[in-house]
Amino acid sequence: MPIHPGRFAAAHAGPIVVFLIGMRINHFHKPGKWLPVARAMPAMLRELYADPASGFLGAETLLGGVRVLFMLQYWRDFDSLEGYARDPDRVHWPAWAAFNKAVGGNGSVGIFHETYCVDAGRFETIYANMPAFGLGKVSGVVPATGSRNAARERMKASRPET
């Protein structure tokens, strides 16, 4: 990925849903329990990226130490996220059912998610000497100069123009 020298901010304006989803490997010696969980996400991502109408905007895969894999996702709105998660004809629902059947509460692998619905004008971003990343990768970037030079101004710029 090419590095963009200088300072940039995400071009996104309007509300956004930030969704963190991940897994923690509690017992490395039980790959039969945690490997299916790790393998489920790529199929979901392929499905979501292939369907722009889903409300899914993009994602970043991250590591949290040795045991935790997680993904930072961006969604247009909560209804789209929930609609995808609960649709029995999409990849997520059968994967969720399989997790509950295979792992349930046995403790071999943990899963988590956190959802943040962020109003327009309540977020800001900065990327200095970075390749495309996060919300900037999803929405594109603009130079963080002039009215986007300081955090407070970038916060204002996340409101859609009226």
List the helices and strands and how they pair.
Elements: E1 4-10, E2 16-25, H1 31-49, E3 56-64, E4 68-75, H2 78-86, H3 92-102, E5 109-118, E6 127-130, H4 134-139, E7 141-143, H5 151-157
Antiparallel strand pairs: 1-6, 1-7, 2-4, 2-5, 3-4
Broad shape: elongated
Strand order of the largest sheet: 3-4-2-5
Helices and strands: which structural class? alpha+beta
Q: What is the C-level CATH assignment of the largest domain?
A: Alpha Beta
Mean pLDDT: 93
Using the 3D structure, state the CATH architecture of the largest domain. 2-Layer Sandwich
Q: Any idea how many domains?
A: 2
Give the end-to-end Cα distance, rounded to a whole number of Å: 35 Å
Q: What is the CATH third-level topology name of the largest domain?
A: Alpha-Beta Plaits
Main sheet attributes: strand count, strand direction, barrel closure:
4 strands, antiparallel
Calculate Rg over CA atoms.
18 Å
Percent strand: 25-35%
Helical proportion, percent range: 25-40%
Tally of contiguous helical segments: 5
Question: What is the count of β-strands?
Answer: 7
Written as H for each helix and E for each strand, in order along the chain, the element string is: EEHEEHHEEHEH
Unreliable sequence segments: none
